[in-house]
Amino acid sequence: MVGENLEQASPDLLRAMMETFANALMSAEADAVCGTPYGVSSPGRTNRRSGYRDREWATRAGTVELAVPKLRAGSYYPDWLLEWHGRMVDGAATETDVRV
Questions:
Q1: Spatial separation of the C-alpha atoms in residues 66 and 76, rounded to whole Å
Q2: Which band of pLDDT confidence, cut at 50, 70 and 90, is reported for residue 20?
Q3: What's this model's pTM, rounded to 2 decimal places?
Q4: Which one is predicted more confidently, 90 or 68?
């Protein structure tokens, strides 16, 4: 039932949902790397955020704008996004336009 509703939804809605979910997932992963949520002071903090990198992610619903968190020490790039490099998230094509 959910799949049928999503198939009938506009590409704009699907793109917005994917963008929101992907950005929230990356933010949560960056929080885990830093040892505390964004904007919260904690003695257990192991790193800090330092802005975002804008990246485009091609999907069957269209291009999704991602905000990949940057860290002050080390680097962060989501493993799950790297796994999808070379194919669309829904398996609709064999190439994507992910710019690293």
A1: 14
A2: very high
A3: 0.69
A4: 68
Q: How far apart are alpha carbons 92 and 60 in whole angstroms?
A: 6
Q: What is the 3-state secondary structure (H, E, C) of the chain?
A: CHHHHHHHCCHHHHHHHHHHHHHHHHHHHHHHHHCCCCCCCCCCCCCCEEEEEEEEEEECCEEEEEEEEEECCCCCCCHHHHHHCCCCCCCCCCCCCCCC
Which two structure tokens, joined as six digits, stand for 63? 């291009």
Length of the chain, in residues: 100
CB 58 within 8 A of CB 50: no
Give the per-residue pLDDT at 85: 53
What residues have CB less than 8 Å from 22, skipping those under 6 apart?
Answer: 57, 64, 66, 81
